[in-house]
Amino acid sequence: MTSIDVDRLPEGDEKVTAVRSMFDAIAPRYDLVNRIMTFRMDVGWRQRTVSALGLTPGSVIADLACGTGDLCVELSSRGFTALGFDLSFGMLAAAPHPFPRAQADALALPLPDRSVDGATCGFALRNFLALEPFLAELSRVVRPGGRIALLEVAEPPNPILRFGHGLYFGKVVPVVGGVLSDGAAYRYLPRSVAYLPPTDELLAMIAAAGFDDVTRRLLSVGISQLITATRAR
């Protein structure tokens, strides 16, 4: 079982420990639950994320919070050199395909300054201890002119769709997760969206960290979002 307290959202070091424990616990069936919950739309979202980098094959890409390696596999299939980093050893160990990976905190990456051409991150912004140090670390390791692509959940702007999505994400997802994996984890995950700052604030934080051309796209009528930016020269 996980150590996530579903009655409140943990903060500080408690959050780091709880998130790592949770993902270790749900790792064995994480990919299966994702495919079912998103009706396989997550596959297309990751493809869009890699395409949005706009980098040439052969570029070195760090995938942060890489989990079981979905984005790394997609990156490799496009000719990129993908390096995966995740806090959860359980997620790394559950990877169905081999790829270069290491257990590491995305806020303290074992990479030299300006050492990668780009970075990706899928559905993890709300799980980090804090966004400012994460963005600062992105700015440190991505070379000037390099690109980042951050994939995350979102809420549809249409009020009817937003209501329906809220019911599904808040009610159906925990039930499905409870049947197939860990109920506590999948009750926590919908609530964890509260960690994300308002959109304008998030985009401003990315720009302040040293990135230009910060762009946000809504995917699948707004149930997910893709944020891209270029490391300032």
Break the fold down into its secondary structure elements and pairings:
Blueprint: H1 12-26, H2 30-38, H3 41-53, E1 60-64, H4 70-77, E2 81-86, H5 89-93, E3 101-103, E4 116-122, H6 131-141, E5 142-153, H7 159-180, H8 183-191, H9 199-208, E6 211-219, E7 224-231
Parallel strand pairs: 1-2, 1-4, 2-3, 4-5
Antiparallel strand pairs: 5-7, 6-7
Helix pairs in contact: 3-4, 7-8
Uncertain stretches of 5 or more adjacent residues: none
User: For the residues shown, what is the average pLDDT?
Assistant: 95
As for the CATH topology, it is Rossmann fold
* Number of E-type strands: 7
CATH class: Alpha Beta
What is the C-alpha radius of gyration, as a whole number of Å?
17 Å
Question: What would your notes on this structure say?
Answer:
With 233 residues, the chain is α/β, with parallel strands linked by helices. The chain has one domain: 3-Layer(aba) Sandwich (Rossmann fold). 44% of the residues lie in helices and 21% in strands. Helix 3 crosses helix 4. The N and C termini lie far apart (46 Å).
Question: Can you tag this structure with a few keywords?
Answer:
9 helices, Rossmann fold, 7 strands, alpha/beta, 233 residues, globular, 44% helix
In short:
The protein is an alpha/beta fold.
